[in-house]
Amino acid sequence: MPKSRIRKKADFTPPPAKRNTVKLSSGRSWVAPLMLALFLIGLAWIVVFYVTTGDMPVESLGNWNIVVGFGFIAAGFVVSTQWK
Known about the structure:
Layout (H helix, E strand, L loop, with lengths): L30 H21 L12 H17 L4
Helix pairs in contact: 1-2
């Protein structure tokens, strides 16, 4: 039986390295701090209202202070949709 020819293989050259540069600063660095600030302001507003038994932050609003606090929290969620 005849022997098969031995073919010389070319040396392995790895593919060129891909340069995936991640751009962290996409111009929206204000989103996370603003979102957290709105969450904390809303939470603080509601806590202050309950701790002071309705005397603060705005006494004339009465129980609407809770709505204002949740409004700040809702605004934080709206801002969070801009986060990438």
